[in-house]
Design goal:
Length: 274
Amino acid sequence: MNLKYMKGNFDCSILVLSSDAYQPILKIWDFYHQKNWKCPYNVYTVSNKKHYESKNVECIVTGVTWEENASHFKPMILQGLKKITTKYVLFMVEDQIIVNPVISENFYHALNFMERNDITKLRCLSMPEPDLPLEGNPEGPITNENFGMISKNNEYRNSLQAAIWNKERITELLNSTEGDFSGWHLETDKTLKKYSKKWKYVACRQGKGGTLLSRNEGQTDSPLLQYVELVRWGKLDRLYYDYFKEMFEKDGIDVTSKEYEPFGGNLTKEELPE
């Protein structure tokens, strides 16, 4: 079976959440996305008022003012989603750095699985862990061994870890309550969680391709995306010294330069926040 010609394989885009202040981190995301994925999908990012220059990423300048409480999240994402015309969108944050080669064919399988089983969200790793068996016929790496359903009462059901979403439904979810809000609010708000219960969510299983590399957990071996979070509480994660430093130096990325000063690029591991 030639997956390249199966319906829906290319009906997806990538939307990377960012902001003007985080464009130096977005540059690193952009570099490793290009290095590790011969990507068949259009890539978009959102900014406040500053255009991000890239041959690989289309920047949607929203004009939304950055807010300290991060309530700019909702209007910025909605503007990004409005620009996108595909049925599905892979949603990522700019500090989720892709660290190993991506196999596009696995995404084709994931999209076909979502289409055939009316899945609203397929998360690439286990945060939180799925707590029900997978529903629907297996599709490539999307098997009950590697993935499971997220129950309606699962904590962090609306987690912002990298996931493929049905674009219309995430738009509906964001618009289901009045007022602007942050990404943290989306993840934790009980009203939004309740609203999402009418949809089916899937996530990778821990130890079966869904563990995020952090101080306390092992590297993700996800069949979809293998990424590491670079930033913690606005500064480079201490993990930078354990994982990224040698890789960045090899690839000519200098986080001690001036543009990375706001992220603690000149700080020692002990000086970075825990």
